[in-house]
Amino acid sequence: MSKNIIFYFSGTGNSRNVAKDIAAAIEDCELISMGKQHNLSGIYQRIGFVYPVYGGGMPGVVERFIQTLDLSSNANSYIFAVCTSGSGSADGLTNISKIIGGKGGKLSYAESIRCFSNYVGLYAMGSDVENKAKAQSQATKQVVKDIQICAVKSPAKNSPLALIHGPFIKSLAKKDKGFHVNEACNSCATCCKVCPVGNIKMLDGKPDFLHHCEQCMACIQWCPKKAINFKNKTQDRGRYHHPDITIGEMINEQNDSCFEKSKR
Ligand SMILES: Cc1cc2nc3c(=O)[nH]c(=O)nc-3n(C[C@H](O)[C@H](O)[C@H](O)COP(=O)(O)O)c2cc1C
Ligand code: SF4
Ligand code: SF4
Predict the structure, then answer these.
(1) 29 DSSP β-pair partners
(2) 15 burial level (CB within 10 Å; 0-12, 13-18, 19+)
(3) Domain boundaries, the chain
(4) Strand residues in the chain grouped as ranges (E)
(5) For FRET with 153, which of 11, 80, 100, 200 sits at 20 to 30 Å CA-CA?
(6) Any bridge partners for residue 51, and if so which?
(7) Does this chain's domain 4-163 share its CATH topology with 170-250?
């Protein structure tokens, strides 16, 4: 068993990259996706959560994951949370602090890191990928130093956007009804393998969306043929993923069932 464990959720690699940098620095650390429930057996020195901000708060899957994680054997562990966001907002850290407190643990450290904004269904992708990646890497260095020494930091205040978080998150699951796949699709199944919550099955060589979507944008952003679009919004928009993260690191090891028949 490792000494440390980091749970992460990531659509386009920003959070994955932050989690990876922290894991490398604290050493002896497991990196586990929050896409599927995890049974926390054993006692850890440090337990971390790294995830993006969605609509002024935590992604729904992250909240559900932490709500059901058994922390009872780890009440004395150093627990930290790092969120990544496009605006630098720390939304979602207050909530995780409450959830962990309610489970008898203590969130000792909470920090946010400003990254590239990836919500391609909502806006065009910026052109400053390299600069944003550099700034992210720079900001992560301080977070890494803090976590190495088990520093204590309270969550910053939520932004006003946090007020819309509940209804926003509720609206996401069926938004995949707006996804469609064009003739450029070569049936490679990358979209299915990269979906962190198993919301895609391959049906007659094409992705079929199962309506428990988190809107993480991974399928749209990582499709090598740019064959997935959201309504009529994304056809002329660029695609993004963190430049230092490979598709291999994002492939969801739980998605070995891409070619099973879709069950609705
Ligand atoms: C559904 C969705 C909602 C988002 N909401 C916010 C937000 O409220 N505030 C913000 O600053 N960034 C927001 N973003 C941008 C992401 O938080 C940001 O790009 C993050 O670093 C992406 O992390 P990832 O690459 O690990 O998926 C949103 C992105 C998505 C896909
Ligand atoms: S990733 Fe793109 S090309 Fe590959 S199966 Fe999915 S939609 Fe088709
Ligand atoms: S279907 Fe696409 S947007 Fe929805 S959770 Fe899966 S990868 Fe993310």
Answers:
(1) 4
(2) buried
(3) 4-163, 170-250
(4) 4-8, 29-33, 46-52, 78-85, 107-114, 179-181, 200-203, 206-209, 228-230
(5) 11
(6) 83
(7) no
CA distances from 26 to 4, 22, 29, 247 (A): 8, 6, 7, 24
Ligand whose nearest atom lies closest to the CA of 54 = 1
Task: Give, in words, the CATH class of 4-163.
Answer: alpha beta
pLDDT in the model for residue 255: 58
Tell me the two tokens of residue 37: 């429930």
Find the 79 Cα to ligand 2 centroid distance in Å.
38
Q: How many CB atoms are closer than 10 A to CB 45?
A: 16
Q: Say yes or no: CB of residue 57 within 6 Å of ligand 1.
A: no
Q: Is the CB of 87 under 6 A from ligand 1?
A: yes
Tell which residue, 20, 94, 17, has the closest CA to residue 6.
20
Name residue 180's beta-bridge partners: 229
**Closest of 90, 60, 18 to residue 216, by C-alpha:** 60
Give 80-133 pLDDT, tens digit per residue: 999 999 999 999 899 999 999 999 999 999 999 999 999 999 999 999 999 999
Task: Give the ligand 1 atom nearest the CA of 117.
Answer: 19
> Residue 135: which H helix or E strand, with range?
helix 129-148
- The residue whose C-alpha atom lies closest to atom 8 belonging to ligand 1 is 55
CATH number for the domain running over 170-250 = 3.30.70.20
